[in-house]
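Comment thread on ticket #2218

A.B. wrote:
> Attaching the input chain for the structure job we discussed in standup.
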Amino acid sequence: MTESLLDTLASRGLLADATPGARDRLAAGPVTAYAGFDPTADSLHVGNLVPVMGLAWLQRLGGRPIALVGGGTGMVGDPSGKRSERPFLPEDEIDRNAAAIRGQLERFLSFEGQSGALLVNNAAWLRTVGLLQFLRDTGKHFTVNYMLQKESVRSRMETGISFTEFSYMLVQAYDYWHLFREHGCELQMGGSDQWGNITAGIELVARAEQRQVHGVAFPLLTTAGGAKFGKSESGNIWLDPARTSPYQFYQFWLNADDRDAERFLKLFTFLPLEAVATAMDQQASDASHRPAQRLLAREVTSLVHGEAEARRAESVSAKVFGGEPSEDYATLAGSMPNVTVTRAELEVGLSLTEAFVRAGLASSKSEARRGIQGKGYSVNESLEIDVDRRLSSSDLREGKFVMLRKGKKNYVMLVVE
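C.D. wrote:
> Ran it. Output below, let me know if you need it in another format.
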């Protein structure tokens, strides 16, 4: 690789650690590397973008990425960062989730050509390996003392850890060994909470094959405010538009804290660092218009959902926050979160508190009442202060829409069926 992968990752905030010798190996020529993805949902979420970007930069610099979907390891459960054991999913559900991920990865990785990415499911080899064979070929290379030193195990000793989870690092190490033998994979990439599992794989390849392989760890991200990255009031921000609409996705990035804007531009876009610096200069002179967040939202939404959806989300956002929603409620309803109500409910009068609860803008009617009393809710961009108010057909815009807002940023459209 003419440009150092490690230098690129470091300059963009994507490097937390690397094994000794990794830089020399990368300098010697293209390398095949893998990162794993959990198949417990039928979509990746924005937290997964960190390893995705790592694989994408690897490919852009001449390497071959392998995206490993843990259809097999998903049946075991990784204890890293977990306080308790996760419930097991049925095999058919894991398989469906694994199959749903490739289309999302294709937005970032090319699966064509000589250095084309590979998508593999470790269920293909793990579900067929016998216990005695696994113990003989893998387990004999590790001592219990070695495994107890790993943070993912040590952190669970007080609360308890099942033998299934205890053995997880050996199963993941087996993955690395398999990919080394089948595809010449010499680098594993993952979050810093995976470092113990990564080094276990390196140890197994060294003992079984007498070959040196390497690992790279990405940082675990939190926001400037200290919150876990990738969460919103409604939960995970998904890449699947059926779970998180392109408008909601765009808004997530647009609402990034000023202190996070530069870091996120480096982490989650392919913009040259010079372009990021220019955006931050514009931010410094015009912070009220948030040029850095607008660039961030446009770039990441375009990567995940395509340019057309990014432009649409940008246009809808401009209308909503520019105070012009009355121009096209149908377009807004098609882009922002919405919930249906019946015309009969509006004819008899739907309580405003009930409407905000149904829209997910309040967890209970009492919370909605407090929010209305605190002047935190609006209907069709008009502030509401009457806790006993009932929505009626006279509130409809374009014959079927009512826009509800909580605070300044959370919008939901009521749509009459």
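A.B. wrote:
> Thanks. Noting for the ticket: Residues 224 and 260 are 6 Å apart (CA to CA).
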